[in-house]
């Protein structure tokens, strides 16, 4: 199948191109970048070209790895130009996610939860990186009635610097980030909260992100208020029922909490749960680790393409470094 990548010179675009270059069913027809046009892309033998509507008309699917707002314009222009023949679109931005106001236009592509809806989808909204770990860990527990919605649920999340994209910013200079660790977006105002709340209605989420002095990776530690009788073992069992190893990219630790080094440069999400002593009514600590550019972006986008085409969900994604 012929695919193209808009915004191929950014962090997510380069990661998508790297995966597609090795995907057995894919030929990458174009990798667009305005600033890198003429230079080599991650696909051997394919130089970057400036974004063009004409090139988009010649492929079966397009990954939109663009800034927020820019993707929505491209979707409008593509639909105007090609109508029903518009290629399948996988949007990595927030423009069509739940809470965006445009969500009715797209299928939300949390791959493990929505793959049955994908074959009909013409536009898939790829989830945000932080929400991927939060929603995949909490939604099965909420649906199983394990979470007590009357108490706050605290999410302490940390991301590597690529999470902010490749456009230069003073607060992301090496000298500002190295040897440092800080919170940002405090006050429960991070834009990813809309997406989490839309999928987890009724849970009082407190989401506090932090900036890790590392290029990539997300570690999330959640303090989950549970109903009496809910144990860490029961939570692991619930996840295992939902995420079979052979048909999902989610792994459940038999004990302990996940570490970043287990997921860096992979497309896996690793979950763990542990009891908390001395708190009544009870809480459980849940840990989620993923690579923001892997399962948090490109890996999930490739899973969504696979699901749209009716291919095996995990074809072409990475299990190991
Ligand atoms: N970084 C992450 O961990 C992550 C994870 C999940 C989702 N996302 C989302 O994915 C999207 C892309 O993120 P990113 O980190 O890859 O961003 P990025 O590194 O800033 O890359 C954005 C790309 O879009 C191109 N571009 C910018 N304005 C454009 C325009 N008007 N028309 C055409 N191309 C334009 C850029 O410039 P050139 O054309 O010059 O190359 C670049 O290639 C964002 O919406 C982000 O929120 C990011």
Describe this structure in words.
This protein is an alpha/beta fold and 321 residues long. It folds into two domains: 140 residues, NAD(P)-binding Rossmann-like Domain (Rossmann fold); 164 residues, Dihydrodipicolinate Reductase, domain 2 (2-Layer Sandwich). 27% of the residues lie in helices and 20% in strands. The chain is built from nine helices and 13 strands. The strands form two sheets. The protein has a seven-stranded mixed β-sheet with strand order 8-9-7-10-13-12-11. Strands 2-1-3-4-6-5 form a six-stranded parallel β-sheet, sandwiched between helices. α4 links the parallel β5 and β6. α1 crosses α9 and α5 packs parallel to α7. The longest helix is centred in the C-terminal third of the chain and has 16 residues. The radius of gyration is 19 Å and the shape is globular. The two termini are 26 Å apart. The mean pLDDT is 96.
Which helices and strands occur, and which strands form pairs?
Blueprint: E1 2-6, H1 11-21, E2 27-31, H2 53-56, E3 61-64, H3 70-82, E4 88-91, E5 107-108, H4 111-114, E6 123-125, H5 129-143, E7 153-159, H6 174-177, E8 182-183, H7 192-199, E9 205-211, E10 218-225, H8 232-242, E11 250-252, E12 269-275, E13 283-290, H9 294-309
Bound molecules: NADP nicotinamide-adenine-dinucleotide phosphate.
């Amino acid at each position: 199948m012929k695919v193209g990548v808009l915004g191929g010179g950014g962090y997510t675009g380069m990661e998508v191109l790297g995966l597609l270059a090795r995907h057995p069913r894919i030929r990458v027809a174009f990798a667009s970048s305005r600033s890198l046009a003429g230079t080599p892309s991650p696909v051997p033998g394919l130089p970057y070209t400036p974004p063009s509507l004409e090139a988009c008309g010649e492929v079966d699917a397009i990954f939109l790895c663009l800034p927020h707002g820019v993707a929505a314009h491209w979707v409008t222009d593509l639909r105007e130009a090609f109508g029903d023949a518009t290629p399948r679109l996988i949007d990595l931005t927030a423009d069509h996610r739940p809470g965006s106001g445009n969500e009715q236009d797209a299928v939300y592509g949390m791959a493990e939860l929505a793959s049955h809806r994908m074959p009909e989808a013409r536009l898939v909204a790829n989830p945000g990186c932080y929400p991927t770990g939060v929603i995949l860990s909490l939604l099965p527990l909420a649906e199983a009635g394990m979470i007590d919605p009357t108490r706050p649920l605290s999410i302490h999340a940390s991301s590597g610097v690529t999470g902010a994209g490749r456009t230069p910013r003073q607060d992301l200079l090496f000298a500002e980030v190295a040897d440092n660790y800080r919170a940002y977006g405090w006050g429960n105002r991070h834009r990813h909260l809309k997406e989490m709340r839309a999928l987890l209605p009724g849970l009082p989420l407190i989401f506090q992100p932090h900036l890790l002095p590392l290029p990539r990776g997300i570690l999330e530690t959640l303090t989950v208020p549970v109903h009496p009788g809910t144990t860490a073992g029961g939570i692991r069992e619930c996840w295992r029922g939902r995420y079979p190893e052979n048909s999902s990219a989610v792994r459940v630790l038999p004990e302990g909490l996940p570490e970043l080094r287990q997921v860096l440069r992979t497309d896996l999400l690793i979950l763990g749960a542990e009891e908390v002593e001395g708190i009544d009514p009870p809480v459980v600590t849940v840990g989620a680790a993923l690579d923001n550019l892997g399962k948090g972006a490109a890996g999930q986008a490739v899973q969504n393409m696979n699901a749209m085409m009716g291919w095996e969900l995990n074809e072409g994604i990475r299990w190991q470094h």
